[in-house]
Design a protein that fits this description.
about 725 residues, alpha/beta, 8-stranded antiparallel beta barrel, 7-stranded mixed β-sheet, 32 strands, about 25% helix
Length: about 725
């Protein structure tokens, strides 16, 4: 403690406050703080009049490098983390304070986490710095309690940001688009850990012999910013960016270098993960247990203990709460909620058929604690007539329309109301087929509990294998495919409420923002990131993609996996990637609830039914014109449609021309005859981006003199049939 004659704690090199972190200030929960306890070794470093924040711990590198960095920091409360007696003696000889953990813990102190744990347990902030950091002034004088559990810098400093980025899989056709979350790496070389219970859980894990960190910034970032999954737990710490003018690669107070990375230096393209061979090992190991999709037992989970959730309603107190503001909703959840939890789906009058399929799956699964949020009177009446629990809440989107995307954006305002009453919600779109009860907790249930309840947000992923769902290294960043805003569980916590309020505000003011984009942005954005200062601090978990399936994984991969198909039963299948939503739902219900073998095999793993590509094949243009000129049927249709346009499913306006063009009630397109002998009475008509095959059902094809020609049209992508008439 007396290594320097000058009192560094009273000497200020810069104007105090110029290194204040970006972003909004937030009050922390005082109940989570670790109480300070006396410690002679630390107390000698921390004088009562000190302006320094925390204890600086110098780690990594040769002991002489650590000693030199400690001196250059000019900090009074500084300690060198050492791993053996030889290093401790070197520090003593240099007059620099050190900390050598007792016994076997010393050997694990290479990165200083054991020393950081020792400091945190005594109620002091631990500022961990590699010997590679170059200090230009005392960092402890520029730090303060910024409200976060952990503070640090990211690779790229102000030039990189956490974001949502699109990606494409062209082989999926219409279904090719997906979003991903890109997260810059936290530099492990300089990090501030504050004495909070969640931070202590994290650092104790990092210091333990069970920790599996490989020393890269990727692994360190995962522990702080990436979601939990299956047996892998996360502490749920809050993270805030430090002022990049002061603490950065070329910071005015400290130059913080990038650490090593898991990135191979080659996978640079935004769609690189799509081209790689899928890896299913982690998720499959979970579902092949005897518990299958049931949660992993706490005794076998890996990682720091998750922080306690900050529930709005006292778990041992009154429920529901805030009923003076939400009386109608309270009346519903009192009747329907089980253990203060419900499945909720938002619907309007446009999708009654799909809503019926959704409810059919719920009833077959024996999920009784569900609520349909009716956005209009017609939906409320529809539910009432069928004895379906509902909450009538009429809201209007910012665009004023009632299409799927517009109404989907209203869910966050509704979720805010639910969590405000103390009700946790598993939000589900209606294009989901349910096959297991996610809340099962009775030994007599057909399946085990599927929701972990150890994070504020627990969401389904659009990823299709381990790297895409759980994370991979890309361009010195971490990346994972986005979580779907159509199926996720929100615990009724204060953190969740903050996020739902933020999302509700964005959906009400940002006309062109997709609700799924905003949902992922609010989880991936960093506290203090430019243009996004609001921060909810939600802890996150991603669901196992083999249990809560998206339709890309289900149709493209699962059904061809001999370890899983056809016996593996998911909790749910969300038909989110494909356009033929209700039809695919019917096939899933047929196979898994009605025992119709291979009912799902009629579908391509991309868009459309099997055979759709063959259906869309067309003769060369020259052959089409020749067949039109030679066909009595074609000439009769041209004459009839010119005099009186035909009808398509009752809609008038079908006009056929000799040059192979056509006009429909909606747009223009092409037509002709299929020239194979077996299809001589068959036409094709392509318009609006869709291909159709028309089979003659009434009228004389050879003479071309019939009064009426009737056809049945089959759309190639989904076999949808309509009647076409020329009379």
């Amino acid at each position: 403690p007396n290594a320097w004659s000058a009192s560094a704690s009273t000497r200020v090199a810069r104007a105090r406050g110029t290194c204040a972190p970006p972003g909004e200030a937030k009050a922390r929960d005082a109940g989570d703080a670790v109480e300070a306890t006396p410690c002679a070794h630390l107390d000698a470093l921390l004088s009562k009049d000190s302006l320094e924040h925390g204890v600086l711990i110098i780690t990594e590198g040769d002991v002489n490098d650590r000693i030199q960095t400690a001196r250059e920091s000019k900090a009074h409360a500084v300690i060198v983390a050492v791993v053996n007696e030889e290093e401790r003696r070197a520090c003593d000889a240099a007059g620099v304070p050190s900390h050598l953990p007792r016994g076997a813990d010393g050997a694990r102190n290479t990165r200083g986490y054991v020393t950081a744990s020792w400091v945190l347990h005594r109620g002091r902030a631990a500022v961990l710095a590699s010997s590679k950091v170059q200090f230009k002034s005392n960092p402890l004088l520029e730090l303060a309690d910024d409200g976060a559990d952990v503070s640090g810098t990211i690779g790229g400093d102000g030039h990189k940001r956490a974001r949502v980025q699109g990606m494409a899989d062209p082989a999926m056709g219409w279904s090719q688009y997906a979003q991903s979350m890109v997260i810059p790496l936290i530099r492990s070389a300089f990090v501030v850990f504050r004495p909070m219970r969640s931070t202590l859980s994290l650092v104790d894990w990092l210091a333990s012999e069970d920790a599996d960190l490989d020393g890269t910034d990727d692994a360190f970032t995962d522990e702080i910013l990436m979601p939990a999954h299956d047996a892998r737990q996360r502490a749920g710490v809050s993270f805030r960016l430090m002022n990049s003018e002061c603490f950065a690669e070329n910071g005015a107070v400290a130059s913080v270098p990038d650490g090593s990375t898991q990135w191979d230096g080659n996978t640079t393209h935004e769609n690189s993960v799509i081209a790689q061979t899928p890896n299913f090992s982690s998720a499959k190991a979970t579902v092949l247990r005897k518990e299958k999709c049931g949660i992993v037992d706490e005794s076998t989970r890996v990682g720091p203990k998750p922080r306690a959730l900050r529930y709005i309603a006292d778990p041992n107190g009154e429920y529901p709460v805030n009923c003076d503001k939400f009386s109608d909703l309270c009346d519903v959840v009192k009747r329907v909620a089980r253990n203060r939890e419900v499945v909720a789906a938002v619907s309007n009058k446009n999708i009654f058929y799909m809503l019926g399929l959704f409810i059919e799956g719920l009833k077959k699964t024996k999920i009784e604690n569900y609520i349909i949020v009716a956005l209009d009177a017609e939906t409320a009446t529809w539910c009432k007539e069928r004895d379906v629990p509902y909450y009538h809440r009429e809201l209007q989107s910012i665009t004023g329309t009632t299409d799927n995307h517009a109404t989907s954006g209203l869910k966050f305002r509704i979720l805010n109301e639910f969590v405000s009453t103390g009700t946790s919600v598993l939000l589900s779109d209606v294009d989901v087929v349910w096959m297991q009860d996610p809340f099962a907790d009775d030994p007599k249930s057909s399946n085990q509990r599927l929701i972990y309840r150890d994070a504020d947000i627990e969401g389904m992923t659009d990823g299709w294998d381990d790297p895409s769902a759980y994370g991979f290294s890309w361009n010195r960043q971490r990346r994972l495919v986005a979580r779907n805003s159509g199926l996720f569980f929100v615990a009724a916590t204060h953190n969740t409420q903050t996020m739902m309020q933020r999302l509700a505000e964005r959906m009400a003011t940002e006309k062109n923002t997709w609700d799924q984009t905003a949902y992922n942005e609010e989880q991936v954005y960093l506290w203090g990131q430019p243009k996004h200062e609001a921060y909810s601090g939600v802890s996150q978990r991603v669901m196992n993609y083999m249990c809560f399936m998206n339709s890309k994984y289900f149709f493209r991969f699962m059904r061809f996996d001999e370890d899983l198909y056809p016996t593996h039963r998911a909790a749910s299948v969300h038909v989110n990637y494909h356009p033929e939503k209700p039809d695919r739902m019917v096939s899933i219900i047929a196979q898994y609830w009605k025992d119709e073998k291979d009912a799902i095999d009629v579908w391509n793993w991309g868009e459309g039914r099997k055979g759709a590509k063959e259906c869309a094949q067309r003769p060369p243009d020259a052959d089409v014109l020749k067949s039109i000129a030679r066909s009595p049927l074609a000439q009769a249709l041209i004459t009839k449609s010119k005099a009186k346009p035909g009808t398509w499913s009752g809609n008038a306006g079908m006009v056929l021309r000799a040059d192979g063009t056509l006009t429909t009630p909606w747009n223009t397109g092409k037509w002709g005859l299929l020239t194979l002998a077996r299809t001589k009475n068959t036409l094709f008509m392509d318009f609006g981006g869709a291909h159709h095959i028309l089979t003659l059902t009434r009228g004389e094809a050879s003479s071309g003199v019939s009064e009426t020609y009737a056809f049945t049209s089959r759309r190639c992508t989904d076999n949808n049939e309509v009647h076409v008439l020329f009379d």
